[in-house]
Automatic annotation (TrEMBL), chain A:
It catalyses: RX + glutathione = an S-substituted glutathione + a halide anion + H(+). Its EC number is 2.5.1.18. GO terms for cellular component: cytosol. Coiled coil: none annotated. Its main location: cytoplasm. This is glutathione transferase. SUPFAM superfamilies: GST C-terminal domain-like, Thioredoxin-like. Belongs to the GST superfamily. Tau family. Keywords: Detoxification, Transferase. Signal peptide: none annotated. It is found in: Cytoplasm, Cytosol. Residues 3-82 form the GST N-terminal domain.
Automatic annotation (TrEMBL), chain B:
This is Glutathione S-transferase. Belongs to the GST superfamily. Tau family. Is involved in the conjugation of reduced glutathione to a wide number of exogenous and endogenous hydrophobic electrophiles. InterPro entries: Glutathione-S-Trfase_C-like, Glutathione-S-Trfase_C_sf, Glutathione_S-Trfase, Glutathione_S-Trfase_N, GST_C_Tau, Omega/Tau-like, Thioredoxin-like_sf. Residues 39-166 form the GST C-terminal domain. Gene3D superfamilies: 1.20.1050.10, Glutaredoxin (3.40.30.10). Keywords: Cytoplasm, Detoxification, Transferase. Pfam families: GST_C_2, GST_N. GO terms for biological process: glutathione metabolic process; toxin catabolic process. It catalyses: RX + glutathione = an S-substituted glutathione + a halide anion + H(+). One of its GO terms (cellular component) is cytosol. GO terms for molecular function: glutathione transferase activity.
Length: 219, 166
């Protein structure tokens, strides 16, 4: 596939990272275009008129939107280093957990935006989400996808990495080893995987960035 | 996990979440009437639009039939915009899947069973606002498999009336 691959994204976005990880895991060369989310470019608005959001993958001039839909596209277009199992039933299970990450993952961001009772509720729901993954999602293998990182690992990897940033910015602790031992073991493996390790946005920089974002937010 | 229907049980193994089940069915019985295109780009577009339907349709629709006053008016406007966006995506095609019914058609057509309810509660005509959309829905209902498996809109209206009374 010799056609040009472009990723419109943002360094601090978990959704953007998911796509970058998928591309890097498969060794696909691409151009990264950093979008200023406070001043969205004409190109972004042209390529994602419905949601006007990053990430957008542009392959041979054609745009694909929504992070996990992009990851599935990458998986189908460049089938080497598979991110999904081959068996249809196992694929359905993987898709189920990706969907779960999509539906429930955003609750972690409510921690970031809330105070008081809303914050307590968001923390409770986030813990429930993590507990469900701990009890039902993890299998007795290194990653959700077996011996190699797959789509579900990518989906939850972004949630957990950014959750650690939120923990630091807000001063709460959710990812505790005694509460979520298997999840944290999986997460350590994920962070140490060669491709992932080299493509993690700097955590300290993100803490500064998100703290500043909170301070400048209108009340 | 979710304690919800639908659940498909195939050879004793359960699969949950409607569109995930549809993809599973498409993969296992791939020789008959494929619902997703074979080209990866077109598949990504089908998934995008089905995802958009899932995110937008039912939550907006609910506000139309259960809302009041300003919120209901806002919901009606959003619903109309949503249907117009879908009309734009349909373009001149017979179905979202092209000449045959596809993934997006399957995702969207059950929503049309609720239109009678929206129109009654919202006091407006969807056909007047979005004729192309209604024309598409009618084409889908010409397919016996679709027509037979969808609930009667009158039953849905009765159901909604019951819910509103609680």
């Amino acid at each position: 596939m010799g056609e040009e691959v472009k990723l419109l994204g943002a360094w601090s976005s978990p959704f953007s990272s998911r796509v970058a990880w998928a591309l890097k895991l498969k060794g696909i060369a691409y151009e990264f275009v950093e979008e200023d989310l406070s001043n969205k470019s004409a190109m972004l608005l042209k390529y994602n008129p419905v949601h006007k959001k990053i990430p957008v993958l542009v392959h041979a001039g054609k745009p694909i939107c929504e992070s996990m839909i992009i990851v599935e596209y990458i998986e189908e277009t460049w089938p080497h280093t598979p991110l999904l199992p081959t068996d249809p039933y196992e694929r359905a299970i993987a898709r189920f957990w990706v969907q779960f990450a999509e539906d429930k993952g955003s609750v972690a961001w409510r921690i970031f935006h809330s105070t008081g009772q809303e914050l307590e509720k968001a923390i409770k729901e986030s813990l429930e989400m993590l507990q469900t993954v701990e009890e039902h999602g993890l299998v007795d293998k290194k990653y959700f996808n077996g011996e190699n990182i797959g789509m579900v690992d990518i989906a939850f990897g972004s949630i957990c990495y950014w959750l650690q940033v939120i923990e630091e910015v807000i001063g709460v602790k959710l990812l505790e080893p005694h509460k979520l031992p298997r999840l944290l073991k999986w997460f350590q493996s994920f962070l140490q995987a060669p491709v992932i390790k080299e493509n993690l946005p700097d955590r300290d920089q993100m803490v500064v960035f998100f703290k500043r974002f909170l301070e400048t937010k209108p009340a | 996990i979710h304690k919800k229907i639908p659940v498909l049980i195939h050879n004793g193994k359960p699969i949950c979440e409607s569109l995930i089940i549809v993809e599973y069915i498409d993969e296992v019985w791939h020789n008959k009437s494929p619902l997703l295109p074979s080209d990866p780009y077109q598949r990504s577009q089908a998934r995008f639009w089905a995802d958009y339907v899932d995110k937008k349709a039912y939550s907006t629709g609910k506000r139309v039939w259960s809302g009041k006053g300003e919120d209901q008016e806002a919901a009606k406007k959003e619903l109309t915009e949503f249907l117009k966006t879908m009309e734009g995506e349909l373009g001149e095609k017979r179905f979202f899947g092209g000449d045959t019914i596809g993934f997006v058609d399957v995702a969207l057509v059950p929503f049309t069973s609720w239109f009678h309810t929206f129109e009654n509660f919202g006091q407006f005509s969807i056909e007047a606002e979005c004729p192309k959309f209604i024309a598409w829905a009618k084409r889908c209902l010409e397919k016996e498999s679709m027509a037979k498996s969808l609930p009667d809109p009158e039953n849905i209206y009765g159901y909604a009336l019951g819910l509103k009374k609680k």
